[in-house]
Amino acid sequence: MNNLEIKNLTKTYKHKNANEDINLNLDSGVYGLLGPNGAGKSTFMKQLATITTPSSGKILYNGKDIKSLDDEYRDLIGYLPQDFDAYKNFKAKEFLMYMAALKGLKKDEAKKRVEELLKLVGLYEVRNKLVSKFSGGMKRRVGIAQALINNPKILILDEPTAGLDPQERARFRNLLSNIGTETIVILSTHIISDIESAAKETIMIKDGKLLLKGTHKEILESMEGKVYTITTNDEIEINEIQRKYKVVNINRGMEYTQIRVISDTLPKYTNTTYTEPKFEDVYMFYFELEDAREV
Ligand SMILES: Nc1ncnc2c1ncn2[C@@H]1O[C@H](COP(=O)(O)OP(=O)(O)OP(=O)(O)O)[C@@H](O)[C@H]1O
């Protein structure tokens, strides 16, 4: 059994709820935590990682309060903080060996694990190079490796793809698929494509509150009937649509422009068709639609 139960989790900073009454039940698998800036993702993850304590509510691991499990729980966690910075004067392998020692791995075991991880994150060839000479993506990979060092049962990755280029993002998605299926992986992002293929479920939070947790299918179903494509070649109309609606994308063709919009009601333009929702619509629909509804 590998289960996390989050019950009425609330974290208050100076009268403001950074997390409010969050209830979730998580089993092994990858969960994408999605939300705009300031939604409360890091706060949520910090509580799971025991970096900060809840103001109220609790977290249970396999039915037991993590407060009472204490180090027993901490030994099961791997955590990549948002602002992770490996000690720059270390070489990659040296740094991971150091982290392994902190996690209590014996020397032989540590050597083996560090070697495995350097290969997994694609840094084996540069293992004896200074981390300070690494690119942002490589540093992030060192961060992911250190989070994996103790073979965690719960892996918490706070924006693991922040600052990565498309190639590094693809590499990260591959890496994720190689992390054991026996682990609860929670990764935060505001880039929907990072979790589209990798996550079994997406958890959305906004203003500190849980908005929705669901599989891709469930999330797409929740947007059913709200995505439209308007086809036009009238520039005045195009400008008006951009003002009135939340536009997911504009596809300018030789003769016509196709505009994909999110709307609660059928937009009243001559050539408007209902469109099957896609994952690319999720962010706009859940986090930016309110402004559009006010129009
Ligand atoms: N230590 C703190 N003291 C006071 N307020 C805080 C603290 N940490 C977070 N907050 C506030 O709590 C809210 C949630 O912040 P949090 O960092 O959890 O959001 P986030 O979703 O991770 O955002 P981002 O994507 O920008 O990192 C924000 O309004 C933030 O300003």
UniProtKB/TrEMBL annotation:
Transmembrane segments: none annotated. Signal peptide: none annotated. Residues 4-232 form the ABC transporter domain. Keywords: ATP-binding, Nucleotide-binding, Transport. The keyword Nucleotide-binding applies. GO terms for molecular function: ATP binding; ATP hydrolysis activity. It comes from the Bacteria. Gene3D superfamilies: P-loop containing nucleotide triphosphate hydrolases. InterPro entries: AAA+_ATPase (IPR003593), ABC_transporter-like_ATP-bd (IPR003439), ABC_transporter-like_CS (IPR017871), P-loop_NTPase (IPR027417). Belongs to the ABC transporter superfamily. This is ABC transporter ATP-binding protein.
